[in-house]
Amino acid sequence: MTTAVLLRTTRRRRTARALLVTAALAGAVATLFVVTMMVGSFRLSAGEVIASVLHLRDEPSVDFVVRGLRLPTALSALTVGLALGASGTIFQQLLRNPLASPDFVGITSGASLAAVFGIVLLQAGGLVVSGLALGGALLAALLMYVLAWRDGVSGYRFILIGIGVAVFFEGMTGYVLTRAQLFEARQAMHWLTGSVGQASGSELRLLSIALAVLLPLAVLLQRQLRALELGDDAARALGTRTELSRAGLLAVAVTLVALAVAVAGPIIFVALVAGPIADRLLGPAGGGVLPAALAGAALLLTADLVAVHLMPTPLPTGVVTGAVGAPYLLWLLATTNRQGAGG
Amino acid sequence: MTRLRAEGLTLGYDERPIVAGLDLTVLDGKVTAIVGANACGKSTLLRGLARLLTPREGAVYLDGASIAEMSTLDVAKVLGLLPQSPVAPDGITVADLVSRGRYPHQGWFRRWTERDHDAVSRALDATGTADLVDRPIRQLSGGQRQRVWVAMALAQETDLLLLDEPTTFLDIAHQVDLLRLLRKLNAASGKTVVVVLHDLNLACRFCDHIIAMADGSIVAEGPPTEVVTAELVEKVFGLTCVVVPDPVAGTPMVVPARD
């Protein structure tokens, strides 16, 4: 076999696999999306759900349950999952570290501090808390970028500073909580656990619009991401404007995660595991942003199903993702150390 | 006319300049070695020539234009660089890595074309890595891995290729193997090659032109037979030695003196 033929078959196989994985993930997400709206105390068929969501038929009792009660939660799980998955994989690839998800590098904890501050000291609720969370996440990201800057931002420094910032914010959050009255403390703790059920219509709309703009942008920026993965010198030698590309990719990832946290609170581990799951399916160094986003959505929809319907009492989504994510994190730490490839 | 030259080039990372007021012309269509003791500024010079470092003073000219004012992408179409320690993403395969060399020739929306395909095939053939296309980089030996990185730089299809210590971490057989590969590429396509090397004997044996550096400036340059003398080695490396002709090729060979 000549090289040209060999190369062509290899590439064709890769492309076919990427298409298949993306299509399968999209199918899974669509199915889960419909299923979450079917189950509950008032059971519905798939046909009824689809007809109601797409406004094909008008049936007041079904429409009330689907459009009024279940669709907002399902949409929230879908959009938050997409945003977390895309954001997580961008962070991990950009910082070249599987542990560098936004949960760990201080962005989520910045949002948490701002939100808890709002709930406890300003007695705020709803949109104000979401706005504060969004602001907190963006400020935390900006702070880390400035602190990590020294003739450019390197992966390792960003991660270490991020971990430091996260610990600092968590300490502050704990302090604010000690100042709280019982009612506000309860509310704050509920927010801190993270739940897709707490989203309001206006926040959801904002996240959906942001996803419609930023997800395609992230897919386009994947080209730069592939070059940056090879190290800064190699990326520049290939013609990448490294600082500009990195700043752009970080801005997209930070905005996505900030909005997701503003909508649903800090749902942990989804951003951490979505990328690796997509990569496992795509084959080595696949790194697709879209498959990772879909994996995130599938994960969160499943977690929501489990949290609300399979548990004896309905739980916040964050409890379920945490219970699944923590063992994965341990496994990741254990195997990474064994390979000696922590950096 | 030479395509790549530096004028009054001063480079550095912090306050202290590492390369100071250096003039240099890279000979077209030749293989040039930059040699010198550790920390003499040879890698810094190479990074400056490839636009990875912005000059403090002076400039690097590529085809008559100052590269600091050219776009990164335009430079990348003419001049390729293999850095000292590029990072292979986890689990990446040879085909994927070499294909990434096509980056400067692709656009935001223009994806894979026949030209890309041909360039990658040629690069794999030239470096003898074609039968490895499906293999993950991590499973390859050091010598194979270095050939794959060279293949990526070749897929970029540049007229000039700079390599920063490509033979470090390779055993003697693979060092020779890699330098033979560079010679072959130069002979086949007239590619201008500049390579930072540690081993003076290999540099003499495989390169047309030697640039010897010490403390950020050029001490001597020219064909190996004219440049490499016992005095130069003493001056550049601080080693007392005897220089004898290589028994095979007749190029200068450095033998340390008795202590």
Automatic annotation (TrEMBL), chain A:
Name under which the protein is recorded: Iron chelate uptake ABC transporter family permease subunit
GO terms, biological process: siderophore-iron import into cell
Pfam family, one: FecCD
UniProt-listed PANTHER family: FERRIC ENTEROBACTIN TRANSPORT SYSTEM PERMEASE PROTEIN, FERRIC ENTEROBACTIN TRANSPORT SYSTEM PERMEASE PROTEIN FEPG
Localization in the cell: Cell membrane
Membrane topology: Multi-pass membrane protein
Keyword field: Cell membrane, Membrane, Transmembrane, Transmembrane helix, Transport
Database matches in InterPro entries: ABC_BtuC-like, ABC_transptr_permease_BtuC
Transmembrane residue ranges: 75-92, 104-122, 128-148, 155-177, 249-277, 289-308, 315-334
Primary location recorded for the protein, binned into one broad class: membrane
Keyword Flavoprotein appears in the UniProt entry: no
Protein family (similarity comment): Belongs to the binding-protein-dependent transport system permease family. FecCD subfamily.
A GO molecular-function annotation: transmembrane transporter activity
Any one Gene Ontology cellular component term annotated for this protein: plasma membrane
From TrEMBL, chain B:
Protein keywords: ATP-binding, Cell membrane, Ion transport, Iron, Iron transport, Membrane, Nucleotide-binding, Transport
UniProt feature coiled coil, ranges: none
PROSITE patterns: ABC_TRANSPORTER_1 (PS00211), ABC_TRANSPORTER_2 (PS50893)
Domain ABC transporter: 4-240
A GO biological process held by the record: iron ion transport
Protein's cellular compartments: Cell membrane
Domain of life: Bacteria
Protein name: ABC transporter ATP-binding protein
Organism annotation: Actinoplanes aureus
